[in-house]
Write a structure and sequence with these properties.
The complex is a heterodimer of chains A (253) and B (308).
Chain A lengths: L12 E6 L8 H11 L8 E2 L7 E2 L3 E9 L13 E8 L7 H4 L6 E3 L6 E3 L9 H5 L6 E3 L4 E3 L5 H4 L12 H5 L5 E5 L6 H9 L15 E3 L24 H11 L1
Parallel strand pairs in A: 1-11
Antiparallel strand pairs in A: 1-10, 2-3, 4-5, 6-7, 8-9
Chain B lengths: L4 H21 L8 H21 L20 H26 L4 H23 L11 H25 L3 H28 L6 H5 L6 E6 L7 H6 L5 H30 L3 H28 L12
Helix pairs in contact in B: 1-2, 1-4, 1-5, 1-10, 2-3, 2-5, 3-4, 4-5, 5-6, 5-10, 6-9, 9-10
Classes of the chains: A alpha+beta (253), B mainly alpha (308).
Amino acid sequence: MTSLPSLPTPKKLGLVIDLDICVGCHACVVSCKEWNTGGYGAALSDQDPYGADVSGTFLNRIHSFEVLPEGAEKIGEAGDARIVHFPKSCLHCEDAPCVTVCPTGASYKRADDGIVLVDEDMCIGCGLCAWACPYGAREMDVAAGVMKKCTLCIDRIYNETMEEVDRVPSCVRTCPTNARHYGDLADPTSGVSKMVAARGGIDLMPEQGTKPVNKYLPPRPRKPLAESAMPLAENSPAASGFFAWLDGMLERI
Amino acid sequence: MHPALSIIVFTTLSGFGYGLAAVLGFGLLDPQFVATKIAHILALFLIAGGLASSTLHLGNPQRAWRALSQWRTSWLSREGVLAIATFIPLCIAAYGAIFHDRYLPLPGIIGAIMSGITVYCTSMIYASMKSVQAWHTRLTPATYLLFSGAGGALLGVVFAVISGSGVLFLMFLSVIFLAAAWAVKSRWRRRMERMQPLSTPESATGLGFIGEVRLFERPHTNDNYLTREMGFQIARKHAAKLVQMSYMLGGVVPVVLLMLTLVAGAAAYAVAITFVTLAVIAHFAGVFVERWLFFAEARHAVMNYYGR
């Protein structure tokens, strides 16, 4: 049934992504594609994979944004521009518009942990759920003709044949900088909930009324670029100690 | 949004079909004439053709029957259920007219009302999308219903002229519906052009507290499903021309041709038929352009992540 669970789900499993830490390496993109092309449901196909016009299905993509504070034009001026790498996957919304529009009942939100899934055997590939999602979290697989989306690696997180350390989504396990975190956002004592509380975790597009479960930790304030360490210029009067002596000696030769 | 031909054909053809079915359902064409019997068949064919076209864009059309199950929440499912249910009164009414020369008021009026509700469901598939702000308004179902009525009335005029009965009232109805449809459509356009975007790159990334957000790098250099399906863009100068074309073909030309038919009507039967047929063709072309623009001009919220 494509009705949403009536109550807030007892668990709200999801991701917390730290935009201050992410370096945009795309390791989570590759790891997600690798795990999910052989995991839940149809493979994540590529079209023209070795040609010029390659494209394919991804459940997780990294965008990079340039953020310009007011008055900023170039790096180095008042209010330095900064680059923020921005991983984006399904936010497992509490009020998921992709679920209620589904005409077949293929799209559903689990009542116990809140994960939004697609039953691919029931999906007709109409694409309406992808239209309904403001985040672009769903992508139609061209080869299979069914809708693909992040499963929160449901075949890992409950997989008791794996070691406990691996029972997290593939993207979280693989992130080399620890920018991605997984946990229960309904439990205020969980690690992810504490992070969200401490750092002021944000919802994406709250105005769309989707109540996303996944949260993003905003980038921390940064000191101006001009205050950062600069390489010493020649004849630098700022040199001191050994370098001041060396500076003087070399000057005399 | 990508203007998929199958969906444009579906919404336009089924809209005209339901409009004509409603004209027949309210008994505006006399079933004694052969033309009226043909009109019944044409209405059913237009509806069926539209529905068949809608299945062409499915990834797995063999499971399309499953789409009838989620009518509690999904407008697409409601549309499917009602479309099939509406065939019952429409077929009974067609049977009465074709085989017994009789207008059956009960299935006729039920069929007409259900036709209207089906068109409403079709329009709500789009109007319910909060992610596509241009569509997310009550004006969307209003335009769909009025265009369906205008197309149905205009088709009705053709069959009335052929039979030589009930022409004036249907012409009057056509002009009223055409005027209302294009008036509401121009309000719809004004709303789209003037609205403040609900979501912005700043709200989409949550980075607005730092400053202005703009895309630096896409996830991949090539297109993907999202950019192909949701990232369609049309040049403004072309859109402006197409809009004028849709108003001219869909509204002005049919009305002028109807007036000319009135003038020529009594004198020349063949001329009148030619004029009203041309009016229908012009209107179809105009509405087709209108429906193409409905998709092509609508911006999806996800494009805030793609710098479009």
